[in-house]
Amino acid sequence: xxxxxxxxxxxxxYTGGSKIVEGAGDSLSALIDDLDTKHKGIKGRLITPExxxxxxxxxxxxxEDVRFLGALDAKLNxxxxxxxxxxxxxxxxxxxxxxxxxxx
Amino acid sequence: xxxxxxxVAKYFGNxxxxxxxxxxxxxxxxxxxxxxxxxxxxxxxxxxxxxDVPARHIPxxxxxxxxxxxxxxxxxxxxxxxxxxxxxEEPVVIYHSHTATEAYPSRTDISFAGEPNAHYLLVSTxxxxxxxxxxxxxxxxxxxxxxxxxxxxxxxx
Lengths: 104, 157
Description:
The complex is a heterodimer. Chain A is α+β, with helices and mostly antiparallel strands. In chain A, 23% of the residues lie in helices and 22% in strands. Chain A has helices at residues 28-38, 42-46, 95-102, and strands spanning 3-6, 20-23, 57-61, 64-65, 81-86, 89-90. Chain A is globular. Helix content of chain B is 21%, strand content 34%. Chain B is globular and about 35 Å long.
C-alpha cells in the first residue's frame, strides 16, 4: 500500500534530498512511523515528545488539513497524497503566548 | 515612503547577503501592510526556482487577524504552495509587518521560520508616514540581516 508524501525543503535532509517519498500505513501516525524507519529522525520533526502533531508543521491528506480529519488518527487509503508544509506564522508576540494562542 | 538602498537591475539575482527586489513589489507590500494596520499583514513573493528573483506578489490572509501575531490560513497556504509548484516557482520572499515594533524578527518569527531558502522581509508600520523595511535569512534559529536592494524594472537592461 503506497502513499505519496511531499516533503518540504526543510525536511529533505532526512530524505536524501527527495521531494517525494513513499510510505505506508492506515493512519497518519502509522504512516509517520513507517517514514521514520526509512528516514530516521523525521518523526521528531512532525510529532512532539508529548505525542501530538507539531505546531510548526501543517499536514494535508489530499486537499484537507489533517487537523480537521482527526490529526494523527486520520485514516489513510492507498493512493492518498500527503503534503507536509512548514507553518508560516510569527509576529511581534512573545513565543509562549503565540504557542498558547495557536493551541496546538 | 522610506526605501532602502537604490541599485540598478544588473544586480538582479541574489547571490550574497542581499535581497534584490523590484520597487513596484515593495510598494505593493507596503500598501498591504498599511491596509491591514494595526493588524499584522503577511504574504509571499514567488519567483522561478533557483532564480532568487522575487517576481509574483501574493498577499495572504492573516488567519490570526492580530496586532501581534500572523499565521497563514492553512488551506490558502496549501493552494498557493501548489500553485507555485505547478509554475516551477518557490517562495523567494516571505513577508510580514510589525505594527508597533521595529522590523526585526521576534523570537516567535525565528522559531517558526521554516523556509530555509526564503528571504524573510519585515515591514514596520509603527510610524504613520514612513516604513522600515529590512530583510533577513533565518536558518536553524540564526538570524542574518541582509541588504535590501530596491530596483526599478524600468531601468532593467
